[in-house]
Amino acid sequence: MDFIIDKKHEMARSLFADFAQKEVKPLAQEIDETEEFPRATVEKMAKYGFMGIAVPKEYGGQGCDPLTYVMCVEELAKVCGTTAVIVSAHSSLCCDPIMNYGTEEQKQKYLVPLAKGEKLGAFALTEPGAGTDAQGAQTKAVLDESTNEWVLNGSKCFITNGKEADIYVIIAVTDITTDKKGRPKKNFSAFIVEKGTPGFTFGTKEKKMGIRASSTYELIFQDCRIPAENLLGVRGKGFQEAMHTLDGGRIGIAAQALGLGEGAIDRTIEFVKERKQFGRSIAAFQNTQFQLADMATRMQAAQYLVYAAAEAKKNKPRFSVEAAEAKLFAAEAAMAVTTKAVQLHGGYGYTREYDVERMMRDAKITEIYEGTSEVQRMVISGNLLK
Amino acid sequence: MKIVVCIKQVPDTKGGVVFNPDGTLNRAAMLTIMNPDDKAGLEAALRIKEAHPGTTVTVLTMGLPKAEDVLLEAMAMGADDGVLVTDRVLGGADTWATSTTIAGALRNIDYDLIITGRQAIDGDTAQVGPQIAEHLGIPVISYAEDIKVDEAAKTVEVKRQYDDRYHILKANMPCLVTALAELSKEPMYMTPGGIFDAVDQKADRITVWGRKDLKDVDDKDLGLKGSPTKIAKASDKVRKGAGEKVSLDPQASVEYIMGKLNEKHLI
After folding, report:
1. Where is the Electron transfer flavoprotein alpha/beta-subunit N-terminal domain (chain B) (predicted)?
2. Neighbours of A232 (CB within 10 A)
3. How many beta-carbon pairs under 8 angstroms link A with B?
């Protein structure tokens, strides 16, 4: 699968890079320390259309392609992993499923304000007992036919944009059927839930290793009633819809990983030129040069995989393997490259004065969320051995 | 209301500067940006457009064909359309030939307000804006730090920066205002959708003019031949010497400095 970077993409990249340098980079270290959600930055990103890049114009978006969106996440992640994942979770995990499975009314009501950035989105599948084993989810939705409402009960955890979002896509069990062997089988459905709905509250805020200013919360549903028309997509098809949504999400996270690795290389190049040991800059040592060469080569390969996955998303109905390969490779490359970046910074790299320390902590999550590296290997090998 | 903003593609100071043998800049070989004062002027025009619905903003530039990039950027920020004035015979123009050319292009366009940057970072003359106004016979207010438009009265009120004070000046439209970078209240950016539209609709939204399209101009006033300014020498930044350090008591210091200034006939 090929991709072409044309004039539009070049201009978009320069926009994202310029914005990231001027608006995001100056706050990155501070919000990591304070764990404060960068609301003002999100508002600025909304003003310039970053919250609906790949959403068609008729739904309030920018009408660009997935590659442009990926470049946005990449450029933001070069300077701040937190800001990048806010955009990624909002766009890939909330705008996309409403775009793909929503009715026209749902798109007008929810997608338009999301794409304009007037509202922030989130997606909730994971539960305390259901991570990689997503089918283990327990949150239930029961239709109360007397009021024509769905009643949600259960809890979700590790939800990105958790408390800051306005609109949530929630996956819940709606029916239990039996499979071919007569065993009970859960059927899931997706729902759109608005913040402020009675019975929908927030639990604990996660204290995380990285992406510390992203708002990661537990969501709690206790007899939370939502209108029947907030069923998103087809009843009973929620799991497939969630998996397809995650395929798109993985490209966003792959782009975040890509940016973190590239950003760490940028910081390291600056550092090794300045840092002097044994009477010369450490850039003059062959170890530094070879390490940097390996780091750059690895991120370049990651970039090709991520861009190809973005192009596959545009052109193909299914792109699970491309997304899994991009995320697996980019995340592991980002972890390795940020670790090497810290090493090349020496003792300074271990202090919170230098960006690479934060980038290494931020990179770790890319190997875990939206499907661990192990899940990506399951997806890729499953396709090979089917 | 119709606003025309004159913008210039200038060398990005982050990249290297390359000169032609005649001392003019080799623009084709350098990284470029939109001139900062011009960008502030464009931002002011876009804010006026936002506050006064129905306003159109046209951006105009003179340069090599690749100066089209600066028009695309301006349109991606919100300008409606662009005019590129490009022709081999216009190359090497100084401020006189440039302002003659731009005025010749502007005579084809309806406008209420023309905004130019105060000066370009590659020439630093601050002459082109006021010269355009002279050619067109319209009022000019330079060094604008703020522009307010009264559409009904057809006037602009400009806060002009001066050495030690501000002037609040009012002019009838049509007129020309030169913008300071201070006009930019906060950085303004392109939008991704604006970029896609600008590139996709380039053929419809950018008009390209050459020498033949310039109105009421004489060939003798155009290009390098029409430029009275001759560049004796141009060079990249020259490092200054380290200077001279002396340690004296205050009285002796004053005498020493006065002596040096006298010696160099500065006082």
Report:
1. 22-217
2. 25
3. 50
Domain range annotation of chain A: 5-119, 121-237, 238-383
> What is the nearest CA distance from B88 to chain A, expressed in angstroms?
25
Q: Which residues of chain B are within 8 Å of residue A12 when distances are taken between CB atoms?
A: 192, 195
Query: Structurally, what CATH architecture does the domain formed by A121-237 represent?
Result: Beta Barrel (2.40)
B76 CB neighbours in chain A (<8 A) are 11, 15
A63 contacts B73? CB cut-off 8 A: no
The one-letter amino acid code at A78 reads: K
A363: burial class by Cβ within 10 Å (0-12, 13-18, 19+)?
Answer: buried
A241 is an active site residue: no
Work out the burial of residue A29: count CB atoms within 10 Å of its CB; fewer than 13 is exposed, 13-18 middle, 19 or more buried: middle
Sign of CA dihedral A58, A62, A67, A73: negative
CB contact under 8 A, B191 and A49: yes
Confidence of residue B121 (pLDDT cuts 50, 70, 90): confident
C-alpha–C-alpha distance, residues A54 and A66, integer Å: 6
Mapped onto helix, strand or coil, the DSSP state of residue A215 is coil
Report the percent of chain B where pLDDT is more than 90: 71
State whether A11 and B199 contact (CB < 8 Å): yes
| Residue that the structure tokens 């020496």 belong to | A346
Per residue in A236-260, pLDDT (tens digit) is 999 999 999 999 999 999 999 999 9
Whether the pLDDT of residue A1 is over 60: the answer is: no
User: CATH 1.10.540.10: does it fit domain A5-119?
Assistant: yes
Taking CB atoms and an 8 Å cutoff, what residues of chain B touch A8?
A: 195-196, 199-200
Residue whose pair of structure tokens reads 């955890």 in the numeric block = A157
Q: How many residues would you count in chain B?
A: 267
DSSP one-letter code for B63: S
Check the CA dihedral A326-A327-A332-A338 and report its sign: positive
The distance between the two most distant Cα atoms of chain A, rounded to a whole number of Å, is: 81
User: Domain B2-221: what homologous superfamily?
Assistant: HUPs (3.40.50.620)
Q: Does B31 touch chain A (CB under 8 A)?
A: no
Task: Name which of B70, B191, B200, B201 to mutate to probe chain A: the one with the most chain A Cβ atoms within 10 A of its Cβ.
Answer: B191
Beta strand pairing call for B32-34 and B9-11: antiparallel
In sequence order, what are the residues at sequence separation of 6 or more whose Cβ sits closer than 8 angstroms to the Cβ of residue B243? none
Q: Looking at the predicted complex, does its ipTM rise above 0.90?
A: yes
Whole-model pTM: value is: 0.91
Looking at residue A180, its amino acid is: K
Over residues A166-203, the pLDDT tens digits come to 999 999 999 999 989 999 899 999 999 999 999 999 99
Strands (E), chain B: 2-6, 9-11, 32-34, 56-62, 81-85, 113-117, 140-150, 155-161, 166-172, 175-179, 206-209
Q: How far is CA A203 from CA A3, A93, A154, A156, A225, in A?
A: 43, 21, 12, 9, 18
The confidence band for B150, taking pLDDT boundaries of 50, 70 and 90, is: very high
Residues of B in contact with A18 (CB under 8 A): 189
Specify the length of chain A in residues: 386
Of the candidates A23, A322, A332, A370, the residue annotated as catalytic is A370
Question: Residue A48: exposed, middle, or buried by beta-carbon count in 10 A (0-12, 13-18, 19+)?
Answer: buried
Contact of B42 with B9, CB cutoff 8 Å: no
Specify the fold of A238-383.
Butyryl-CoA Dehydrogenase, subunit A; domain 3 (1.20.140)
Rounded to the nearest angstrom, the minimum Cα separation between B197 and chain A is 9
CA distance B70 to chain A (A): 11
